[in-house]
Amino acid sequence: MREFRLALDKARLFDLGCSGDQLTWCNRQEAPHTIYECLDRACGNAKWRLLFPNSDVRLLSSIYSDHAPILIELSPGVVNTNQFARPFHFEASWIKQHDCEELIKKAWNMGIGSTGQERLQQNRDICRSKFVARKQMGCGTVTKEIKEFELRIAQLRNRPLTSDIKLQEKKLRTKLEELFQAEEILWKQRAKAHWLKEGDRNTHFFHSKASGTFQRN
């Protein structure tokens, strides 16, 4: 196993993981002598993961062989051939998302390099691919979430104003304020306007400034 891990490290490959059952081999003996093991793995490198961030690895049913076939589904991931044309930029507003820290923690423990430097590079690339996948799927789109919460608040206001409704509205408004802060951070970063004071919220202006910056670039 040590030699196998060293070979993976040398080729800069890592285990892609597997959803669902991960036991790929069975000795096909009757109970109580049945043995299951995880002997087979699907491997890829960091560039492959960035090209197919939403890929899924799963095992198929094995009828005749003692090894279960491994299927790698590229969809619903979208292949972006321009992935490396632009450098990856971490959006500061992502920090405001409730699951950001958990996503980083999980991704940061997936590297299997034999040296600290190799594990650091693998963890960084895997973490980056996770955020790229979220961005492609539209997850955590601040503007979209703001509209959804504004709609939910408007719907509550059309209902009889009970204590329960007031409590629900308070919770929604607290979340909405967090989203506004995230939106402010997003456009502050994109507009590169470092002189924006904390608490100012001229989103329309910064949206225009950021768009103009992208056009020039």
UniProtKB/TrEMBL annotation:
List the InterPro entries hit by this protein, alphabetically.
Endo/exonu/phosph_ase_sf (IPR036691)
Q: Which domain of life is it from?
A: Eukaryota
SUPFAM superfamilies under this entry?
DNase I-like
**PANTHER family, per the entry:** BNAC02G09200D PROTEIN, DUF4283 DOMAIN PROTEIN
Name assigned to this protein: Endonuclease/exonuclease/phosphatase
Organism field? Sesamum radiatum
